[in-house]
Amino acid sequence: PSLDHPIKLIYKKKFLPVKIVDKSYNFRKIIDHENNSGWIHISQLSKKKSGITVNDIILHKKPTLYSKPLAKIEAGRLLMISKCRDKWCKIKTGKYSGWIERKSVKGRL
User: Fold this and answer.
1) Cα 22–24–29 angle (5° rounding)?
2) Which of 26, 27, 29, 88 is 20 to 30 A off residue 20, Cα-Cα?
């Protein structure tokens, strides 16, 4: 990993979830939600938690299936995660915020 190597992929959206699998000085080897991998400089990474929905899900007002449904979130939507408890995560996406089931999200929980 270095700044002299050719660019393999350019991310145009902020906060996409990635998994860090290796480290070398100021670079991290990552794998994204589509299984692309490569080295990235640490200045391009964020500590904010995010995820992507695996399938269509319902956003709930409280962390229970019996709470008020707020919105339907389509598969592939980027979510900002504020916290997770047991089987539920509190998220924000666009103008909506609420709770979703943890198993419906792929990313950094």
Assistant:
1) 35
2) 88
Residues 29, 39: Cα–Cα separation, whole Å: 4
DSSP letters, 31-79, are EETT--EEEEEGGG---S-EEEESS-EEEESSSSTTSPEEEEE-TT-EE
Residue partners of 19: CB distance under 8 A and separation at least 6: 30, 31, 32, 108
Q: pLDDT tens-digit profile of 3-23?
A: 888 888 898 889 999 999 999
The first and second tokens of residue 103, run together, are 């198993």
Q: What is the pLDDT of residues 75-87, one digit of tens each?
A: 999 999 999 988 9
CA separation for the pair 92, 65 (Å, rounded): 18
Q: What is the pLDDT of residues 44-83, one digit of tens each?
A: 999 999 999 989 999 999 999 999 999 999 999 999 999 9
pTM above threshold 0.90: no
